[in-house]
Design brief:
binds adenosine-5-diphosphoribose, 6-stranded parallel sheet, Rossmann fold, globular, SIR2/SIRT2 'Small Domain', 9 strands, alpha/beta
């Protein structure tokens, strides 16, 4: 009889998708170098200039459709051979799902979906995906559908279930995030006192204020995650 499988909570950020060709936000060529957050990623921006905001996220969607999961996404799928894996991602791309991860919780929304501005429960797939959200695509109240993305200043509805998953985890791994945006960046503090925490990111060694128990692996995800997964699978045998 196989013993109880250990639970791993994965906290991923833009860095895990960087090697798939999707821009991060705060690296040198990052998204927020070329756009002002207040112009494209706030409720006021959507109110003021819906066409610019919807166009911005249609560009993000086009980038995601051209991208493929990389070795880091695929390694996390292999992890499911021996562990209960919950992916909690800040990313709006679907690369974890396309790689085959079975439990993915999006904290900041999902680029493949649109949402009514009046009814937060009216969330639908964008169809056809390639066209993105069209101006004039109205909900039942006659209002323009918006990207199903959490803008700065908006609530993060999934932070509650996410913190429960981290609390319940035997092991926590943080991959490819600058840990600058809350509440997502605070999730690691929900880890059980005896749960090991790993941080895989090229700048992991430069991170300030990390709990001293965090094991930093200063590698790109494409190399660091498969190597880490191999070690986890070996030790699970
Ligand atoms: N492999 C792993 N990590 C990488 C790689 C790579 N190949 N390339 C860059 N990184 C790391 C950077 O070192 C940095 O720590 O990815 C991180 C990217 O940080 P951010 O651009 O701030 O992305 P993220 O932390 O996910 O941003 C959080 O901010 O703008 C909001 O909602 C947006 O979800 C996003 C949130």
């Amino acid at each position: 009889m196989e013993g109880k499988r250990l639970k791993i909570a994965v906290l991923s950020g833009a860095g895990i998708s960087a090697e798939s060709g999707i821009q991060t936000f705060r690296d040198s060529d990052g998204l927020w170098e070329n756009y002002r957050v207040e112009d494209v990623c706030t409720p006021e921006a959507l109110e003021r200039n819906p066409e610019l905001v919807i166009g911005f996220y249609n560009q993000r969607l086009a980038q995601v459709l051209k991208a493929q999961p990389n070795s880091a996404h695929r390694a996390l799928v292999r992890l499911e051979e021996k562990y209960e894996v919950d992916i909690i991602t800040q990313n709006i791309d679907d690369l974890h799902e396309r790689a085959g991860s079975t439990r993915v919780l999006h904290l900041h929304g999902d680029i493949r979906k649109k949402r009514s501005q009046a009814d937060p429960l009216d969330i639908r797939d964008i169809e056809p995906l390639a066209q993105g959200i069209r101006m004039g695509d109205l909900d039942r109240f006659g209002m323009q559908y918006r990207p199903h993305i959490v803008f700065f200043g908006e609530a993060v509805p999934n932070i509650e279930p996410a913190s429960r998953l981290v609390e319940a985890a035997d092991i926590v791994v943080i991959i490819g995030t600058s840990l600058q945006v809350y509440p997502a960046a605070g999730l690691m503090y929900y880890a059980a006192p005896d749960a090991p925490i790993y941080y895989i990111d090229p700048k992991a060694d430069e991170a300030k204020g990390l709990d001293k128990r965090v094991v930093c692996i200063a590698e790109k995800a494409g190399k660091g995650v498969p190597e880490w997964v191999d070690r986890m699978l070996d030790s699970a045998r």
